[in-house]
């Protein structure tokens, strides 16, 4: 018994692409950057290479600007996939590209090697401190973080020591396969929570419960006003938050008042409701907004009104009358 490949009638050549490149580096890279890498790898793999070809040649073959080819190599060098060796420093496009063995790179980063520098040894030990967190993230996502994602996360957590529970919570509900944005999304979430003073999982749960309750109230209020939207506008949100947080009105009282008003006039706007809620918070009946004065006077001019203030019911009747006369 034996195992062998069928010999092709015509050998057009093949190149070896490491699985680590496909699994860990390719998914998060720009498609053009992958093309540049693969084409140059093919040229480097040919017997003797192609010393006459350079970045301008890649630009012409791929039909892309030379600057895009250079950006591709800068990206891959940043990922430690290649090394750039400048030949003519004033000319930023004139350099040699050395392909790195990704298998050796993986071994050097994950296993002890007597030739490691002290810094590399410390990095290896640091990475192992996060093994439990990485396992939990893998279970939550259903897939492992890529090598570059793990490196970015470790570097971030060394600079900003968030708790493992918060980090794991930040990975929740991330779309599977969104490799290029997962770590940046997690960073944004953690920074937002930090700005809100959230430092523990318990505080996060309290905030989430509060946000869910507030969002439900927004939806209920918009529905009561006949507005077919799930979220309020920024202006509407600021007004409603003022009723709840500044005036300290109860949500039930607000909804009861809105139901009473919309039964008589279903087309009230937020400005009118704000007048009503302001009066309610002050224990007053709703006042009619001051009418415009003739001439140069405007609503910012002081004036006195000695007339008896209309009741809320009178104001609502007047409002309906005015709208019918439009």
Q: How does this model look, in words?
A:
This protein is mainly alpha-helical and 326 residues long. The protein folds into three domains: 19-102, Winged helix-like DNA-binding domain superfamily/Winged helix DNA-binding domain (Arc Repressor Mutant, subunit A, Orthogonal Bundle), CATH 1.10.10.10; 112-199, no CATH class; 203-291 and 306-324, no CATH class. The protein contains 15 helices and two strands. The radius of gyration is 33 Å and the shape is elongated. It starts with 18 loop residues before the first helix and ends with a helix.
Describe the structure in brief.
The protein has 326 residues and is mainly alpha-helical.
Number of domain units: 3
* Count, helices: 15
**First-to-last CA distance:** 95 Å
Low-confidence runs: 286-307
Q: Count the E strands.
A: 2
Share of residues in strands: under 5%
Helix content: 55-70%
Order of helices and strands: HHHHEEHHHHHHHHHHH
In angstroms, what is the radius of gyration? 33 Å
Report the biggest beta sheet as strand number plus sense, adding barrel if it closes. 2 strands, antiparallel
Shape: elongated
Structural class: mainly alpha
Strand order of the largest sheet: 1-2
Mean pLDDT: 77
SSE layout:
Layout lengths: L18 H7 L5 H15 L9 H8 L3 H13 L3 E5 L8 E5 L2 H9 L7 H12 L1 H11 L5 H13 L4 H7 L11 H14 L5 H24 L9 H13 L4 H14 L5 H12 L30 H13 L2
Antiparallel strand pairs: 1-2
